[in-house]
Amino acid sequence: MRVIDVDSQVYPPLLLEVTNHPDRLYVRGESKVLLEKMVAVVGSRKMSDKGEEVTKRVVKKLVDMEMVVVSGLARGVDSVAHAECLRLGGRTVAVLAHGLDWVYPRENAGLAEKIVDGGGALVSQLEEGVRPERYFFPLRNRLIVGMCLGVVVIEAEIKSGTMTTANWAAELNRKVWVVRGSPGTDLLINEGVDEWLF
Q1: pLDDT, tens digit, 9 for 90 and up, residues 123-182
Q2: Which is it for the CA torsion 71, 73, 78, 79, positive or negative?
Q3: Model's pTM, two decimal places?
Q4: What is the CATH number of domain 2-195?
Q5: If 0-12 CB within 10 Å is exposed, 13-18 middle and 19+ buried, where does residue 14 land?
Q6: N or C: which terminal CB in the chain sees fewer CB atoms within 10 Å?
Q7: Distance of CA 134 to CAs 97, 110, 139, 156, 186, Å?
């Protein structure tokens, strides 16, 4: 594990633009990946079949563009985004809502190791020993947005962590693209967010 202070040469440059950005990050894996162009892919833990298909198509497009795919290692869309990126030979970063001595959910421990082995990284603003708690997930979502050029929202319920991430993106002046067809993404389109078009 590496501790990256705010004055480190590998501190994510876009994150420096965010008010109250973390003073330090904890990283497992290739820290230099944090200097690359990154786009987040987020969505529902209860992913639909369409959501899985679209996630894979979005990730392929991002890998073809040589973007680093960022997500939160959660069940559903996050897991598919990380795994598909690795399958295609891309690099991916998982941002966690706990210390790096944990993996949540537990079933993604193997995926977390593959992310590190594949030239990506696990990132947290929380030190080792901090367990996953509900109130850490909004911080995780803000960190995801702050590191990235933009966010692709695959599908979401109206009241969800994914929508919180989309709201952070708007607040931090990041680009937001959404996929039509779920209550949350349809609401975002109605509010003027760009639809993801293939």
Answers
A1: 999 999 999 999 999 999 999 999 999 999 999 999 888 998 998 898 899 999 999 989
A2: positive
A3: 0.94
A4: 3.40.50.450
A5: middle
A6: C
A7: 9, 23, 10, 18, 26
